Amino acid sequence: QLHLQESGPGLVKPSETLSLTCNVSGGSITASSFFWGWVRQAPGKGLEWIGSVYHSGRTNYNPSLQSRVTVSADTSHNQFSLSLRSVTAADTAVYYCTRVFSGYYFDLWGPGSMVTVSA
Amino acid sequence: DVQMTQSPSTLAASVGDRVTITCRASENINSWVAWYQQKPGKAPKLLLHQASRLESGVPSRFSGSGSGTEFTLTISSLQPEDFATYSCQQYHGASRTFGQGTKVEIK
């Protein structure tokens, strides 16, 4: 059974870079038909898609975040990562890593990782 | 970007009630809609995709309908474990956007 688990710092300073990794177990990120993505949820707010990556390196980003985001895949370690630059308090959220069926909808989710942006 | 507007934002209902949640898209998105259930402190769970296709293991009391710009999620007989927040998501074109969520509370 496929399992996703986020890891990374829970506290990031303003203007710095938020970096998270999602470790995938029980299956390979090179499986066809699946992208791998990140979704976040600010406290008390709705869900926001950040971006997705295919194992080949092909990416797709939310236009509102595209200038600050990189999502990448590491097939040798069966994991994928998120980098969000120049963070502000508005980036404080629970960050979820997800499997994205054909790049369309999010069919498996990690438990989530709370990241707070604060000095 | 396609905007998804959900209504209502909160809904109070009793066990056994029929519940309907609506999502409206800002443009025609055919049937490219998914629905999720989220309980407090937990990750969302996929319920349906392509507007009406039920995910494996999801109870048949959940159903979805719609195409174009208006979509509905219906719970035919609300159960205690169904009190949660429900969100729609569109996947037309390159971008992915969610509705703001509908919280189903106990009346």
Describe the model.
The complex is a heterodimer of chains A (119) and B (107). Chain A contains no helices and eleven strands. With 119 residues, chain A is mostly beta strands. Chain A starts with a strand and ends with a strand. Chain B has 107 residues and is mainly β. Helix content of chain B is 0%, strand content 50%. Chain B is built from no helices and eleven strands. The relative contact order of chain B is 0.34. Chains A and B meet through strand 5 and strand 10 of A and strand 5 and strand 10 of B.
Topology:
The complex is a heterodimer of chains A (119) and B (107).
Chain A: E1 3-7, E2 11-12, E3 18-25, E4 34-41, E5 47-53, E6 59-61, E7 69-74, E8 79-84, E9 93-101, E10 105-109, E11 113-117
Parallel strand pairs in A: 2-11
Antiparallel strand pairs in A: 1-3, 3-8, 4-5, 4-9, 5-6, 7-8, 9-10, 9-11
Chain B: E1 4-7, E2 10-13, E3 19-25, E4 33-38, E5 45-49, E6 53-54, E7 62-67, E8 70-75, E9 85-90, E10 97-98, E11 102-106
Parallel strand pairs in B: 2-11
Antiparallel strand pairs in B: 1-3, 3-8, 4-5, 4-9, 5-6, 7-8, 9-10, 9-11
| Rg of chain B, Cα atoms, Å | 13 Å
What class, by secondary structure content of chain B? mainly beta
- Extended strand count of chain B: 11
Q: What gross morphology of chain A would you assign?
A: globular
Strand and helix order of chain B: EEEEEEEEEEE
Mean pLDDT across every amino acid position of chain B = 97
Mean pLDDT score of chain A: 97
What string gives the helices and strands of chain A in order?
EEEEEEEEEEE
User: What's the total helix number of chain A?
Assistant: 0
Approximately how much helix is present in the residues of chain B?
A: under 10%
Put simply, the count of helices of chain B is 0
Shape of chain B: globular
* Gap between N and C termini of chain B: 36 Å
Main pleated sheet of chain A: 7 strands, mixed
The SS-based structural class of chain A is mainly beta
